[in-house]
Amino acid sequence: MSQTKIFAHRGFSSQYPENTMIAFQAALEIGADGIEFDVQLSKDHVPVIIHDQTLDRTSTGSGVVGHYSLLELKQFSAGSWFHEKFKAEQIPTLEEVFLWSKNNALQLNLELKGYVWERQKMITIVFPLIKKYGLENRVIVSSFDHKMVRLWNEQYPMIETGIIVKSALYNPESYVRQLAALGYHFSFMSLTMEEAEQLIKSGILLRPYTVNQEKWIQIFINLKCDAIITDYPDLALTLR
């Protein structure tokens, strides 16, 4: 088995404003194996990279992301909340990230978000971008919306998918198989070590999040999880 990969959570988010191009570039420069980031749709149905449903926490905007067009979203700073020196950072589009990724080999873990009634719209918009940039073998599509994961797998089974869970599931192996997913992205304290070992033996790709403490990073590296999703990719790389 290959070594555990280190995915930078929303980019190198402990040192840079999350979900921005500078955070993604910083993750690349320190040697992360991949980046994890969040995808939502703007009012005019452009996939943009931002975590919260609202703009208030991580930008100079206010209100619901999906109530703004891309042109309007681009007027807000996505970095000044973190530090004034990042005020020029904008909310990236998914296509901007894909274009940038053509010059590197990072694995791209997309967390698809949004309203449940927009599932099919999200899938219909995102897949052609993956194909346009030839990223079919570098993308992982994940979501807390497991119905969307299943729908994606029915239409585009060539793209790797993972389900995201916050708490323990009763029979996660069976559940993951039922959804035709490969990845199990779990809140890092929601599995016992015995449960994690069994899932790994069964071929499920475990990717715990958000693993920031040295003790837990080392535990999941020793366990040989497929990847660790962390705000501190520098620490995780050092420990690995």
Structure, explained:
With 240 residues, the protein is of the alpha/beta class. The protein has a single domain (5-239), classed as Alpha-Beta Barrel (TIM Barrel). 32% of the residues lie in helices and 18% in strands. It is built from 9 helices and 9 strands. It has helices spanning 21-30, 70-73, 94-101, 119-132, 146-155, 172-178, 193-201, 214-222, 233-239; strands at residues 5-9, 34-41, 47-49, 107-112, 139-143, 160-165, 183-186, 205-206, 227-230. Strands 1, 2, 3, 4, 5, 6, 7, 8 and 9 form a 9-stranded mixed beta sheet that branches. The longest helix is centred in the middle third of the chain and has 14 residues, at 119-132. The radius of gyration is 17 Å and the shape is globular. The relative contact order is 0.15.
Quick recap of the structure?
The protein contains 9 helices and 9 strands. With 240 residues, the chain is an alpha/beta fold.
Defining traits:
single chain, 240 residues, alpha/beta, TIM Barrel, 9-stranded mixed beta sheet, 9 helices, 9 strands, 18% strand, globular
